[in-house]
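User: Please fill in residues for this 154-position structure.
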């Protein structure tokens, strides 16, 4: 049984042509051309070239923000310990577990690279036994603002 299409062509023929609704051979419309593939791949590469540096910068900024927060927390807990105990802590481990659950990691990814600053002997609670007055990073890497992380206090 033959039917006519809207264009007036007979709609009989092979099954693939009837399914696709066209009378042209299927092999002519299969796949993408090489130029189309090159254009799509080029656009993907351009988008990646834009996105990757932005992603890397956001990772660095988040690590630096974490360092700022950890420095502020450590220095605040050192002050609170000193005010409560009427003496400065002798090591960062003195802050655990009473003031902190754990010592946070430095920007290096380790918690044993923090560098402690000695308490000022003139303002020390106990001039005979000075402790920690503050802390800063032990990393000599350069931050995104051009200063070494070790120069950051909080």
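Assistant: Residues filled in for all 154 positions:
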């Amino acid at each position: 049984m033959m039917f006519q299409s809207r264009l007036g062509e007979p709609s009989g023929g092979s099954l693939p042509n009837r399914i696709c609704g066209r009378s042209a051979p299927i092999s002519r419309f299969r796949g993408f051309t090489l130029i189309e593939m090159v254009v799509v791949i080029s656009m993907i590469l351009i988008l990646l070239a834009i996105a990757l540096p932005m992603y890397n910068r956001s990772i660095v900024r988040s690590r630096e923000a974490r360092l700022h927060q950890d420095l502020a927390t450590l220095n605040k807990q050192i002050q609170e310990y000193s005010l409560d105990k009427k003496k400065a802590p002798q090591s960062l481990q003195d802050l655990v577990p009473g003031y902190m659950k754990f010592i946070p990691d430095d920007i290096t990814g380790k918690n044993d690279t923090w560098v402690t600053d000695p308490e000022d002997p003139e303002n020390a609670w106990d001039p005979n036994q000075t402790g920690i007055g503050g802390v800063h990073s032990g990393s000599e890497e350069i931050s995104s603002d051009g200063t070494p992380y070790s120069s950051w206090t909080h």
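For context: The chain has two helices and two strands.
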